[in-house]
Amino acid sequence: MGAVGVAERLAEKQREISVSEFFEQNKHVLGFDSPTRALLTSVKEAVDNALDACEEAGILPDVRVELERLDGEEYRLTVEDNGPGIVKRQVSKVFGKLLYGSRFHTWSQTRGQQGLGISGAILYGQLTTGRPAVITSKTEKDDVAYQVQLHIDTKTNKPHVVSQEYEVWERASGTRVEIHLRGRYVTGRQSVTEYLRGTAIVNPYARLTFRAPDTEETTFQRVSEALPPPPEEVQPHPYGVEIGHLLRMAKESSARKVSAFLQTEFSRISARVAKAICERADVPPERRPKFLKLEEAKRLLQAFRKVKIMAPPTDCLSPIGERLIRKGLRNVVGAHRPDFYCPPVTRSPSVYGGHPFQVEVGIVFGGDLPANQPVELLRYANRVPLLYQQGGCAATKAVEGVDWRRYGVEQRGGRGLPHGPMVVLVHVCSTKVPFTSEAKEAIAPIPEIVDEVTLALQECGRRLKSHMRKRAQRAKTQEKFEIVRAILPRLAQKSAAIVRRPVPDIAKTITRIMNVVWVDDDVTFEDGRHRVRLRFHNYTGARKRLTLHTLLPLEALDPESLDPKPSEIRPDGRVAWRLPPLAATESSLVAFELRGLEEEEFAEVEAYVSGIDPSRVVGADPLPGDWDLAVEALQDETLLPEPQVLGEVMEGD
Amino acid sequence: MGAVGVAERLAEKQREISVSEFFEQNKHVLGFDSPTRALLTSVKEAVDNALDACEEAGILPDVRVELERLDGEEYRLTVEDNGPGIVKRQVSKVFGKLLYGSRFHTWSQTRGQQGLGISGAILYGQLTTGRPAVITSKTEKDDVAYQVQLHIDTKTNKPHVVSQEYEVWERASGTRVEIHLRGRYVTGRQSVTEYLRGTAIVNPYARLTFRAPDTEETTFQRVSEALPPPPEEVQPHPYGVEIGHLLRMAKESSARKVSAFLQTEFSRISARVAKAICERADVPPERRPKFLKLEEAKRLLQAFRKVKIMAPPTDCLSPIGERLIRKGLRNVVGAHRPDFYCPPVTRSPSVYGGHPFQVEVGIVFGGDLPANQPVELLRYANRVPLLYQQGGCAATKAVEGVDWRRYGVEQRGGRGLPHGPMVVLVHVCSTKVPFTSEAKEAIAPIPEIVDEVTLALQECGRRLKSHMRKRAQRAKTQEKFEIVRAILPRLAQKSAAIVRRPVPDIAKTITRIMNVVWVDDDVTFEDGRHRVRLRFHNYTGARKRLTLHTLLPLEALDPESLDPKPSEIRPDGRVAWRLPPLAATESSLVAFELRGLEEEEFAEVEAYVSGIDPSRVVGADPLPGDWDLAVEALQDETLLPEPQVLGEVMEGD
């Protein structure tokens, strides 16, 4: 056969591939590559949808997951929520058509975004069991619920309705999805229970009920009535918008002038900024966006980088927060009684490709955590626990790229997953989390995101190291102290006996040899109160005075308990005690109590000292020179810390 | 706002998402997550397409890649081939529409399969530069080439033709793609050059020319005229077909009877097998496939597992082969002069989800390879080197899951990537490689595939261990030997002097102390010939005889060079010498030459001995009890080694 025949023969085989066919053939891409994972993915997609719907509607979520084992590997999965429901005319499309949804064309921090998740699960279910999905939905306006049985027609990617009816449902509103699918139910780290537990921890305003096959029902109770504000929709930020995207937006815009187009279609472009951009780009502000030329669009893009534009709004992001991160870590660490809960680090929001994102990191270390294996990594994206594909994830890359040896953690060659008794939690939230695949189990290692996670890890690493240094320093001084205390008296006795003189008082000698101010902290928890005591021992030969600084959760601080009263309390939580002078060999105490926190929320005082040579202090760090700046950074979330990522200088306009 | 409002408000936002929009927003999923990777992905997609087209047309591929740096990060990529060309009416669809292609609905081992690759690159190019792609194509039937400039309309996923014309082209046939894109050109491991080199090695029948920015042209010359047979299309194998798929096939089949349907739509179902299946499933063979009920389809699926069905045909698979695997390894190992090229392992084909696949593994060890870092892993899928996403790949999972400590390789805790001077190559070929994402850089860890790779790695590990054991044993014996040889004569001399007697001959005493038969092999390579010498030293006190067994590439063996003549040569390559009895302290030699192999193809003789207590032999292994079986397994590729994966007993029908 000649080449002519081949081109023609190949031409005959050319065909369009429907998106359903594509994902049916590539079901592993959607997270359905094994029966175990397929089951988990289906639950995740349904629960993520339920939580998103409730949050959008401002309803405290109440989600029930039920898993029944039928014959062999066939399961019936039912997920029911108390969300706003779906209007009848769209039920079959939302569930029976891939790439159909409400969140793709808007930018907001939601769990689902693509319109692929739940319809993917239904596609997988019908592929592996041949059975239709059953959807029941009721909006508050409806008197009865609408129920539809449907298949997905993979050739056309359209719902094929098998039957529909109406039924009485006592709920005010809600949605129930019932899917038959092939699965395997397992327990352990990558299980439905773990996913639900992980979800419950970082979504404490949700009540999640799970009926697993052959077991009792488990309920993760709601522990907070505070629903986060509904996710804000935002416009794309000018940084990171691509030229092709800009051209298309211009072409599709209803604005009649470029200046208006810039203001309406992008976030953070005011009239003044739009004018500056047009000037800089040498594009007339009254030009019609539709007729924008490639070269003009390019110049606009360059002008975005030259003109000062505010960082993207961050009120659209909803981080987990320190308290829940500690709680999440505690849940996993369980009975291992770690030595140290490193104070979690929340980075200021940053931007990639026009999308704001924010990174949080928490670390626990020591105790009975297994020492002789790689550290455990807990990953979250938009408050959803990620249980698979750890290898390819931005979080993993960042952990592997940090030189942990600098923080006293074992790591062969200074690269790769460190070893030791440590658990690391990483959360990335964004109006668009860039997942490596449609299974949404790994965050693509976009440089901006890896960098932010790395900075947060390094900050946690420094905190960890400081903790370990303090501990080592104390242990060493303690040892020295005990040796000195054991030997000197005997030396004194022997010498006195030899020269036949009375035994001298050597307390001052001991302190002169030690020559440190020793700071001990002691935190106990009882009856919902943390009792904190900081004791200062002057083991030097001279009077010493110093100022103690710390950062406390003021809302939990009991003012009555403060003893002595601090010399300063700032609204940002900085508390300082200018302590009275302490004579040689004397000691003094600072005590206070916190109430209303959970136990793991306060495990160790971060103590800093000033007004004294810090090298003579054991048990507290010198007050950092950037103490003011550091605290400010925590307050001011609109300042972006990595301006080189975003272009030139940035300021509000 | 009440829940009613919410459901209605959400309903207004529900929309269909075009597949182009989807991938534009998720371009990282297609492999465009950084400028560096985007450049490589674009080259890969174009070159893979070119190679596929040439192979399908039986044309020796001649592919030219040119990369010009324009301003900033903008590049112009041009890839031109001598393939069959594309008929005019389909050019714009093939390049201007995602999910359009010739290979999705057929099953064969091709590089491209989804109709996503090259159109994805064009989508990325227009997004990042705003410029159209230019395609030129000519089939042998055409007098002039057809050239089209096009954009992809992302809202509709359809080509938008900017201009078209005809031009004279001296080629008989071929295709040229020109894309402007944002990229970053780098050298090193994940570079275009490395990808092309890796491709050239395992596709030696292709000529690849690369003009990189600001450098001379590089050509990877064709080193073989032997084009592999064009990839065979196969029908799905009954094992692994899902119920939903079976129902859909039945519904769409033009066959009028279930028995005919089974025979025409599946591979390995003969009339007899179809009848047996229908009987077992209690489905009348003359039933119309269209009306097949769910329960009947389920029973058919169960019957597939009960009735003996041949393994899938394997002539549709095209593994790389031992020779090219060694060559590929040698290229990477370069100047590190490793100690040992482990003979590569090619597994028999197996099946997942109805798709046949086959695994090959090669290992090199030692020499100057860096010892203090994780081993290097080279991954290939359908003869394409995989350079990204190592973490999530089935090949990586398998390497990490093997306990390498058992084979003498360092690995902390017996899990994870081992450390040491080792390079591992893994190739998976299949009529459908299950990639974790559309970027096609990692193979999904499907249990069947991970298992096969694991078995191949373990086999390589055993070979490595045997080599290392032999080496250690020899070194130890050598040391003992040298000590004995140094000390005994001096002892004899001293003793003789003391008792004033002549110095005795102690050669026999030495051998009695050693008490081994020592086997030395020596392979030299010169003028395209491997000269192999095996020397046997009898360091025991008695006459010894033994039979030497080895496996040789008969096509390369020079019969004239065999000295002495073997006692047996089997067509499968097994060669045996029954050696004449060897008196104590004597030695003998076996020599032969191989011609026409490349140097790295034969580095060490696998020597086995029988007819002698193997514990008395240093430098050769005892003949394995399953020697016959092991060799047979290499010959008989239709036997599947892991029947539990495939169901019950299997035999030809």
Question: How would you describe this protein?
Answer:
The structure is a homodimer of 653-residue chains. Chain A has 653 residues and is an alpha+beta fold. Chain A is 32% helix and 23% strand. Chain A contains 16 helices and 25 strands. In chain A, the strands form 4 sheets. An 8-stranded mixed sheet of chain A has the order 7-6-5-8-3-2-9-10. In chain A, strands 11, 12, 13, 14, 15 and 16 form a 6-stranded mixed sheet that branches. Chain A has a 5-stranded mixed sheet with strand order 20-21-19-23-25, with no helix packed on it. In chain A, β6 (145-153) and β7 (158-167) form a beta hairpin. The longest helix of chain A has 53 residues, at 447-499. The first copy, chain A, is globular. Chain A starts with a helix and ends in a 7-residue tail after the last helix. Residues 629-653 of chain A have low confidence and may be disordered. At the A-B interface, α1, β1, α2, α3 and α4 of A face α1, β1, α2, α3 and α4 of B.
Q: How are the elements arranged and paired?
A:
The structure is a homodimer of 653-residue chains.
Chain A: H1 3-13, E1 15-16, H2 19-25, H3 35-57, E2 62-69, E3 74-81, H4 88-96, E4 100-101, H5 117-129, E5 133-138, E6 145-153, E7 158-167, E8 174-182, H6 192-202, E9 207-211, E10 217-220, H7 243-252, H8 258-265, H9 271-281, H10 294-306, H11 322-333, E11 340-346, E12 350-352, E13 355-365, E14 376-381, E15 384-386, H12 394-401, E16 422-430, H13 447-499, H14 507-514, E17 516-526, E18 529-539, E19 547-551, E20 568-569, E21 574-578, E22 587-595, E23 608-610, E24 617-618, E25 621-622, H15 627-635, H16 643-646
Parallel strand pairs in A: 2-9, 14-16, 17-24, 23-25
Antiparallel strand pairs in A: 2-3, 3-8, 5-6, 5-8, 6-7, 9-10, 11-13, 12-13, 13-16, 14-15, 17-18, 18-22, 19-21, 19-23, 20-21
Helix pairs in contact in A: 3-5, 8-9, 9-10, 12-13
